[in-house]
Amino acid sequence: QLHRRGFRCLHGVDGSAGMLEQARRTGLYRELRLCVLGTEPLPAPAEHYDAVTVVGALGEGQVPSTVLPELLRVTKPGGLLCLTTRSNPSNLRYKAELEAALGRLERSGAWQKLLAQEVEYWERATTEEESTQGTGYISGVVYIYQKCPVPHLEEG
Fold first, then answer.
1. How far apart are CA 99 and CA 144, in angstroms?
2. Domains contained in the chain, CATH given
């Protein structure tokens, strides 16, 4: 969808060489790099990207919420960050931790929340226990933040 909407300079990272190979076969990415989010720095200089997205990786047993400052580091001032997580029962503890970390960064002035939208039918549930009210789907949340510009200090 991003490519169809004019975004042509896409870079991707993943902790799995196999997933990077699948991404490479799409022909959509200008650059793909192996990186385990949350355990090593992103392979990009500070304030490099206009937008950063993390979809399908912020969840229990996956990418820790401690990755947020690193995502901010590589985003340009005024740039956008689009993050997602699931709202299924086994991810509720992680979701609470993530939302607490998101809120701390917002209160510190690092970014501004533009959107936090629940999505009822995020992905198909693999078990009935994970299904949201018997729908067969897991719900999720899309968060969009804008990195705040660095304030200019008065001289003198």
1. 12
2. 1-34 (no CATH), 44-147 (3.40.50.150)
